[in-house]
Amino acid sequence: MTMQLIECVPNFSEGRRKNVIDEIVACFKDKRGVYLLDSRADSDHNRLVVSLVGAPGPIQDAVIDASKTAVKYIDLNVHEGEHPRIGAVDVIPFTPVKGISIEECVSLAHAFGERYYKETGIPVYFYEDAAKRPERKRLEVIRKGQYETLKEEAKTNPDRRPDVGEAKLHPTAGASVVGARKFLVAFNVNLGTKDVNIAKKIASAIRSSSGGFAHVKGLGVALEDRGLTQVSMNLVDYEKNSLYRVLETVRMEARRWGVEIIETEVYGMIPIGAMLESAAYYMQIADFEPSQVLELRLLEMMGESSE
Question: Which of 68, 165, 217, 229 could form an S-S bond across to 199 if both were Cys, CB 3.0 to 4.6 Å?
Answer without folding.
Answer: 229
